[in-house]
Amino acid sequence: MNRIEGVILDWAGTAVDFGCFAPVNVFVDIFSQAGIEVTMEEARAPMGMLKIDHIRAMLAMPRISALWKDKYGRDFSEEDVHRLYAAFEPALMASLSEYTDPIPGVIEAVDALRADGLKIGSTTGYTRSMMDVVTQGAREKGYFPDHLVTPDETGSYGRPYPYMIFRNMEHLKLSASWKVVKAGDTASDIQEGVQAGVWSVGVVIGSSEMGLSQEEYDRLSANERAEAIKRTRRAFLANGADFTIDTLAELPALIGTINQMLAKGERPGQARRLQTAEL
């Protein structure tokens, strides 16, 4: 049948850890310890990538690269990347257990998807050892997908490569990429979905792209919320999203819409082209 068979969800900023604060705070700290002050925006920009790739991407940013050269009298090296990562991993591991709360509405949305016969996979920018902490905490609070693939299982080829999605499809026995939906909260999530040929969906509220904690979001005025949602939505569409939703609570209804599109012979990318025209 031409229906969605499975959904693949990101973790931090999509299913747990509203605002994706666990890693971003550590990125800021390790660069500060190296004598380089980075902004929250710079620390968030590569979010969703394998974390050592994230550090490499930050060091390659023109402003950070120039600061590094001013301080150390040379360009950054792979040795610098690995030294920063060696500081990052234990610092993140020490705090990860505090960032495993499911985002409001996620458990109910996943229950609805399962009730409709869909399988739930997941991908992440965290390593397997990091995810051991996250999955345990999330499961204790009621959230658990059917499968998880980390970059450890794909030769460290994380996002935006599509391989983690393919491994989920293989394990969950999903029959075609166009019968799969990937939902995430970063540009690299969207690109992962696009490159895998699945329906790529950006989740706006609680996302790393929006960059606000639950408390910060709740304090916004109605106009400020609308502007933050609009800005985040445009960023996802600019990176190729087929659709955006405010929260995962909207995903079951969206899948109903996608099923109607599939029945008409439509495939991922067609809605993308229409929505991108709005930018």
Automatic annotation (TrEMBL):
The keyword Hydrolase applies. It holds the Pfam family Hydrolase. Its cofactor is Mg(2+). Binds 1 Mg(2+) ion per subunit. InterPro entries: HAD-like_hydrolase_sf, HAD-like_sf, HAD_sf, PGP-like_dom2, Phosphonoacetald_hydro. One of its GO terms (molecular function) is phosphonoacetaldehyde hydrolase activity. The keyword Glycosyltransferase does not apply. Keywords: Hydrolase, Magnesium, Metal-binding, Schiff base. The active site is at D10, K51. It comes from the Bacteria. It catalyses: phosphonoacetaldehyde + H2O = acetaldehyde + phosphate + H(+). Involved in phosphonate degradation. Belongs to the HAD-like hydrolase superfamily. PhnX family. PANTHER family: PHOSPHOGLYCOLATE PHOSPHATASE, PHOSPHONOACETALDEHYDE HYDROLASE. NCBIfam families: phosphonatase. Homodimer. This is Phosphonoacetaldehyde hydrolase.
